[in-house]
Design brief:
By secondary structure, this protein is an alpha/beta fold. The chain contains eleven helices and 18 strands. Strand 17 (405-410) and strand 18 (413-417) form a beta hairpin.
């Protein structure tokens, strides 16, 4: 068994072990999007022992290596999703995420036990999938969904109980909380006390605190309480430049989910996806139900009807935050219909506001930074983990080659090959 040690944020170590032995590989004649450096139009990537040894223009010695001819393809770092609910995923569902091009996923919901079991199943070779970063939730006192949407998940939770929960996570080897939901109106004084307590405890024991904030008030309130990792772009209002600057100045990162409020139209989602629906030219929310009424906590007009305006707020707010600091925006999907349809849906929303080069950064190195792993994954550089994907075609032109992953290397092992 080979164990790759990744250094997480706060000076802590997360270890991902795999029974799938890394291969020594040469990828030749391939366009290379390094993300942090210039694009190499035709080059060679050398992988040994699960790590990238070199990525350079032209040819290189391939003696003793498994050679993958990348002619007509583009190499990129594997996609990273920093918030997706995968805790109950089975073999087919985990493999579907991998085949879409994702090599690292933060499992942002569910129990510590379910998330740890999924990671173990993949790492031990029971079935294929991306690297799973397990999370665990704080105790939720208010269980009904309406209360959570209105007041958040910290209602009734004391700072002492929250600290104890964070310590329990650390004892289980968990380095991330699941999403802590803020009230759209912003955190109450009691919420702020809990947030400050978990931030402090997290720094002591090495647990990153991740907060779900769907409005500018919730986002800035969390940041002012010391939170620097935010799940979801505000979808209730427009974020002003001063608020975006506050996010940027504190080193905070907001995950996108830009397509949250946009309808899925005329796409098929079948097995093995958790959410399935037919291709029938009707607008649907991410749960497969009719858009916009099905949107969780939907924005509504004076007559009480859902407006669907979430779709506009997210894409504009993403650009505002990006313009304040282009490291402050990361990638998450938080949707469990067909994985390639989810990817397409998000990419379409991003392409309205961002260049392809921007999108490459958001889905790779910026999200690695969100996880505190930018020195290990997220770009094609010597010494980094060989989590690589080969796309058919040239994604510099548009988003569609990003939907056509042909080869996936996970820690240097070829785990998908659809050439």
């Amino acid at each position: 068994m080979r164990c790759l040690t990744w250094i997480a944020n706060l000076g802590l170590v997360a270890c991902f072990c795999s029974a799938l032995v890394a291969q020594d590989v040469a990828i030749t004649n391939v366009r290379i999007i390094t993300v942090t450096g210039p694009v190499i139009e035709s080059g060679t990537i050398i992988v040994r022992g699960g790590k990238i040894v070199s990525a350079a223009a032209g040819s290189a010695s391939t003696a003793g290596l498994k050679v993958i001819d990348g002619k007509g393809m583009t190499a990129m770092p594997g996609y990273i999703d920093a918030h997706k609910h995968v805790d109950k995923f089975n073999k087919d569902q985990a493999e579907s995420v991998l085949e879409a091009g994702y090599t690292t996923v933060l499992s942002g919901g569910g129990t510590a036990e379910d998330n740890l079991k999924l990671a173990q199943n993949i790492d031990s070779g029971v079935f294929k999938g991306p690297h799973i970063i397990p999370a665990a939730s704080l105790p939720v006192v208010a269980r009904d969904f309406a209360t959570v949407l209105e007041k958040g998940t910290l209602v009734g939770l004391t700072p002492e109980a929250a600290r104890a929960a964070v310590r329990e996570m650390a004892a289980k080897g968990i380095k991330h909380t699941g999403e802590i939901v803020m009230a759209p109106g912003g955190p109450s004084p009691e919420d702020v006390a809990v947030l400050k307590a978990v931030v402090d405890e997290g720094q002591k024991v090495g647990v990153q605190i991740n907060v779900h904030a769907v409005s500018t008030a919730a986002m800035t309130g969390a940041v002012n309480a010391g939170i620097t990792r935010l799940v979801h772009m505000p979808n209730k209002d427009f974020t002003g430049r001063e608020d975006a600057k506050r996010v940027a100045d504190t080193g905070s990162i907001v995950l996108g989910l830009l397509a949250f409020g946009a309808p899925i139209i005329d796409r098929y989602s079948g097995p093995p996806a958790q959410v399935q629906f037919p291709k029938d030219d009707s607008p649907r929310f991410r749960d497969g139900k009719a858009w916009p009424e099905a949107i969780n906590g939907a924005n509504r007009d004076a007559a009480g009807k859902a407006t669907g305006t979430e779709a506009g707020f997210t894409i504009v707010n993403a650009r505002t935050i990006w313009d304040a600091n282009n490291q402050a925006l990361g990638w998450c999907t938080d949707q469990n219909y067909d994985d390639k349809v989810v990817l397409e849906h998000e990419l379409k929303s991003y392409s309205i506001m961002f260049s392809m080069a921007d999108i490459f950064r958001i889905i790779t190195i910026n999200t690695a930074r969100y996880l505190g792993m930018e020195n290990q994954i997220g770009s094609i550089e010597p010494g980094k983990v060989a989590d690589l994907i080969l796309l058919q075609g040239n994604p510099l032109e548009n988003i569609y080659p990003m939907l056509n992953t042909r080869v996936v290397l996970r820690s240097g092992k070829v785990v998908v090959d659809k050439r």
